[in-house]
Design goal:
Layout lengths: L1 H11 L4 H12 L3 H13 L3 E3 L10 H4 L6 H19 L7 H14 L1 H10 L10 H29 L7 H30 L5 E3 L3
Antiparallel strand pairs: 1-2
Helix pairs in contact: 5-6, 5-9, 7-8, 7-9, 8-9
Length: 208
């Protein structure tokens, strides 16, 4: 068990205890309680230790929205706003600008809501240095498209039973509000998850 854990720490470089436990579980099929007990024992015996880097300062909640790790949030907001502007300012028959309008519209309807939804419910991913990382990105993209279609359908259904009805303006503004709310919630959850585990970052073995 000791060799397995040290090998995982060195090769896959988990960033948190929970990530280390998940990797060990996938490798050994041991229950979580037993793994935690072994890790506690190894730390007590100084076979594994937490790196002093874990004490580094962590940005505050408000500043996290402007942290480089939140670039995806502002990318979503910029694309969403750009879509709104083009939809209401560029006519459908005004070529070639209409192509730009249509591309943004497809991204806005078929990707952004689902991507923000996925980020809100899965704010952090397991940082394994294997080819499975590519599979994870493919799965995230596919789920984002599927969930976007579902969310757009639900929004349309809700609007159908409201006085606003289904129109270009109502559906566009509703999707903008939904996407912004999900993206903001996702960023807040991401910050919360990282602030909880920040004291647990970066493992190293006792022999280092």
């Amino acid at each position: 068990m000791e060799d397995v854990i040290i090998k995982i720490i060195k090769e896959q470089k988990p960033q948190t205890t929970s990530q280390l436990i998940k990797i060990i579980q996938s490798t050994t099929n041991l229950p979580e309680k037993e793994i935690i007990a072994v890790l506690d024992q190894f730390e007590a015996e100084n076979k594994i230790q937490l790196n002093p880097k874990r004490e580094q300062a962590f940005v505050s909640g408000g500043n996290y929205f402007f942290d480089p790790e939140s670039v995806w949030y502002w990318a979503i907001i910029v694309v969403a706003i750009a879509t709104i502007v083009t939809v209401f300012t560029i006519p459908q028959d005004l070529y070639p600008l209409a192509y730009f309008r249509n591309i943004l519209g497809v991204i806005f309807v078929l990707f952004l809501p689902g991507y923000a939804f996925i980020k809100a419910f899965f704010p952090m991913k397991l940082p394994t240095n294997t080819s499975s990382e590519n599979l994870y990105d493919i799965e995230r993209f596919a789920l984002s498209v599927g969930i976007s279609i579902a969310l757009t359908s639900i929004v349309g259904l809700i609007l159908y039973y409201t006085p606003m009805g289904i129109s270009l303006t109502s559906i566009t503004l509703s999707l903008l509000a939904l996407t912004t709310a999900l993206a903001t919630a996702a960023t807040a959850r991401e910050y919360h998850a990282k602030s909880i585990t920040k004291q647990d970052l970066y493992f190293r073995t006792g022999e280092n």
